[in-house]
Write a structure and sequence with these properties.
This is DUF1273 family protein. The protein is of the alpha/beta class and 161 residues long. It is built from six helices and six strands, in the order βαβαβααβαβαβ.
């Protein structure tokens, strides 16, 4: 069994999505479907792309949600994909935080790391904007000795704000 956790940006540009999807697909193809476990918080962007590709590869998806109210934090257009992925997950771990916060996101990252053999980071390599984000997860994984594979194909960019 190989458990792969994902961390990554929410705001991938439109042209970046297929580039990242292709690289994730190639990375996951190196693992036997029967032994593949994908760990994701199912956030929009990198987390959802990874979850979709784990399922497409025949792996098992485990959702790690920072709080029971996590869905409420999502923008309305992102809720259908979240609902679909959560329904397809083999298991869901829901952390007991009442609301979304840096503490809740750090706890979700800790749970991902506790279960992971590898972290896939869809990351532009830039410093983070706070605790619980992609850069923080990468640093924490590296400190814990969990291997990190950065996915940021040539031509990738974050969406303009």
């Amino acid at each position: 069994m190989t458990a792969i956790a994902v961390t990554g940006h929410l705001d991938l540009s439109e042209r970046t999505v297929p580039l990242v999807r292709d690289e994730l697909r190639a990375l996951l193809a190196a693992h036997r479907p029967a032994g593949l476990i994908g760990l994701s918080c199912l956030a929009p962007g990198a987390d959802s792309l990874f979850a979709e590709e784990v399922l497409a590869a025949g792996g098992r998806l485990v959702a790690v949600l920072p709080s029971p109210r996590y869905r409420r934090w999502l923008a309305e257009p992102d809720r259908a994909a979240f609902d679909r992925l959560l329904a397809a997950a083999a298991a869901a771990v829901v952390l007991p935080y009442r609301e979304q916060s840096d503490t809740a996101y750090q706890a979700a990252n800790a749970e991902l790391l506790r279960r992971a053999d590898l972290v896939v980071a869809v990351w532009d390599g830039r410093p983070g904007r706070g605790l619980g984000g992609t850069a923080d997860m990468v640093a924490t994984a590296r400190q814990a000795g969990v291997p990190v594979r950065v996915v940021w194909p040539d031509g990738s960019a974050r969406a303009a704000a």
